[in-house]
Amino acid sequence: MKDATFKICIFGDGGVGKTSLTKRYVSGLFDPDLKFTIGLDFYVKNLEINEKLISLQIWDFAGESRFRFLLPDYVKGASGAIFMYDITRFSSLKNMEDWLLVFNQGLIKTEKRFPIIMVGGKADLIQKRAIQSEDAIEIAKKQKFIRFIECSSKTGENVEKIFITLANTMMKEAGLIQDNILL
Length: 183
Fold this sequence. Notes:
The chain is an alpha/beta fold. The chain has 6 helices and 6 strands, in the order E-H-E-E-H-E-H-H-E-H-E-H.
């Protein structure tokens, strides 16, 4: 029997790696030929943290602007979120304010605040970096995100750390654990 189920929303521009991140976390595999998400995709990952059985429902939102209208309604019932951008594409971070406006429309409906992690994807493309980690850290602090993490879905770097960090925070807020236990 599960101790808790948490809904996680992943949002950000199209092509930043949201689906690659989610599929890498859920299956452990990287698929270089993924297609753009249409609307949203839904995944489930069951895990044990600190002797608690939890289920993560991961909602992967399409990044194209024509699907943004879906996001506010799907935020309902969420326990946490991941804002993702591509470290090689400045516009994907610049658009964060627009994404947060849309995302916060759903928060107004739920009247609930929850933890958000900012994730810089495609860290394996360091030679094409357009956004410095230090700049992203400052933005994450300004937005009061719980953490900033860079990852590579291709290599697997920090993929699990993102979800475990968020899961620990959600568990703490739900009163299931006393202290965060991070990887």
